[in-house]
Every structure is written in structure tokens, then in C-alpha cells.
Specification:
By secondary structure, the protein is of the alpha/beta class. Helices cover 57% and strands 13% of the residues. The chain contains 10 helices and 5 strands; from the N terminus they run E-H-E-H-H-H-H-E-H-E-H-H-H-E-H. The protein has a 5-stranded parallel beta sheet, sandwiched between helices. Helix 1 crosses helix 10 and helix 2 crosses helix 5. The radius of gyration is 17 Å and the shape is globular.
Length: 202
């Protein structure tokens, strides 16, 4: 099975690329969706409430991800400590979930899998990938996208961008780059060209 690691900067358009790869025949494993599930594992909720109190829980007992984000995304040093704590708890469990799913996909003889993860390089998950695809989008476009689709303020964008590896370093460490600096149709065409260049058995 051929494994593509998909990453990019904040609001770079990774989801659109992942959707197109799925349409072309790949099975996509989404790190954000996995994190949403893992954060509500009983042992994870216990660890988080022990550190931050029950105020991070919603009325239904699930973790309030917005409350968690307020504690881990900031330019202040305490937030960095809290983010490292959260990542230590989540990343190993997300990796375990990915390994389980990849094993099932291999058994099913799935030709191509995509690990869609903003923190692919930061977490070291690229080590299990055949290639790393970086979605490259201009800063202004990413800021507008974050504001319109996620309702983020400029400060929200800055703090989340600062929490990731610098864009230049991500681009340098990728094996392939797709530019997302035009229309959605243009992006789809570039993804199709990338897919054809790999000569995958699909």
C-alpha cells in the first residue's frame, strides 16, 4: 500500500486536496477527526479534567474543544506548556488509531492511503509515509479562508500558525508541493496531475 502524508499551513486548503485524492481512489485518514474522537476517550478526559478542571466539559460530558483551545493556543509561554501536555496525550493515541486503520487497509489490499495531518511533520508521522505532499497557499489567502470558513480573528490565526512548524521548513521537508493559489478547479487539476505523476496502480 502506498501512503501519502498530506500537510500544509493553517487553512492552506488541505481538506480540498484530501477530497480530491479520495475522489481519485485514495482512502483518507483525517488527523483532526481522529483527535476529536481521541479527546473524548475516558482516560484522556480524566487527564484533561485533572489538569484543567471540569469546566472544560460540555453539558453532555464531552470535552469542550473551544475551552481546550483557549488554554493551549497563545503566544504566552504557559500556553506552550499546556499545548505540549495536550499533544503528548493525543499524538500517541492518534498514531495508534492510524496504525490500526492502516493495518486494516493493507489487509483489504487498499492501493493508496492518505494521512491528512496538519502536524504530520511535528508528530513524526511522516516516517511511515512513502511521500509527503505539502499544500502551499499564500498567507493572505489562508488568512481570508480562516476568517470566512472558521470565523477566526487575526489573533486566532497567528496563535495557531505559531503553534506549528514554520511554513518554510514544512515546504523544505516535503517531497512534493501543490500550489493552492487559484480557483478550486485549478487546484483539482493540479491534484490530478500530481496523482498521474505517481503512476499508482489504480
Amino acid at each position: 500500500m502506498f501512503i501519502i502524508g498530506l500537510t500544509g499551513g493553517v487553512a492552506s486548503g488541505k481538506s480540498a486536496v484530501a477530497e480530491e485524492l479520495a475522489a481519485l481512489g485514495a482512502v483518507v485518514l483525517d488527523a483532526d477527526k481522529a483527535a476529536h474522537e481521541v479527546i473524548n476517550f475516558p482516560e484522556v478526559k480524566h487527564a484533561l479534567t485533572e489538569r484543567w478542571g471540569s469546566e472544560i466539559l460540555l453539558a453532555d460530558g464531552n470535552v469542550d474543544r473551544k475551552a481546550v483551545a483557549e488554554r493551549v493556543f497563545s503566544t504566552h509561554k504557559p500556553a506552550l506548556v499546556e499545548r505540549k501536555f495536550l499533544e503528548k496525550i493525543l499524538h500517541s493515541r492518534i498514531k495508534d488509531e492510524f496504525e490500526y486503520q492502516l493495518t486494516r487497509l493493507k489487509i483489504a489490499k487498499t492501493p493508496v492511503a492518505v494521512i491528512d495531518a496538519p502536524l504530520l511533520l511535528e508528530a513524526g508521522w511522516q516516517q511511515g509515509c512513502d511521500i509527503v505532499l505539502f499544500v502551499d497557499s499564500p498567507l493572505e489567502d489562508r488568512q481570508l479562508r480562516a476568517k470566512s470558513s472558521r470565523n477566526w480573528t487575526a489573533e486566532d490565526f497567528t496563535t495557531r500558525e505559531a503553534a506549528q512548524m514554520p511554513i518554510e521548513e514544512k515546504r523544505r521537508r516535503a517531497t512534493h508541493v501543490i500550489a493552492n493559489d487559484g480557483t478550486l478547479d485549478e487546484l483539482r487539476q493540479r491534484v490530478e496531475e500530481f496523482w498521474k505523476s505517481l503512476s499508482l496502480p489504480i
